[in-house]
Specification:
about 80 residues; 2 domains
Length: about 80
């Protein structure tokens, strides 16, 4: 019975110290392996999605419905 507890404790300690390595084997970090072009394209898509959301809000309710933050953000995004 004591050996079971000792083995269990050793297993828990092992998993605790190597949890990051174990996690990366099962769920790899996709951002870690992105190229510069992939990062640029991901950021560009994120900006475009943000612009599309603001423009769809304009399309539904008109320009008067935008908040000040939305207008500022649209202006910032349109300059890039």
């Amino acid at each position: 019975m004591n050996t079971v507890f000792i083995l269990l404790a050793v297993a828990v300690i092992f998993i605790y110290f190597f949890r990051k390595n174990i996690k990366e084997k099962f769920v790899p970090n996709k951002d870690k392996y992105l190229t510069i072009d992939d990062r640029y394209n991901a950021e560009k898509k994120k900006r475009q999605d943000e612009i599309d959301a603001i423009l769809s809000k304009i399309g539904k309710n008109g320009l008067k419905d935008l908040t000040v933050e939305d207008k500022k953000r649209l202006d910032e995004l349109s300059k890039k």
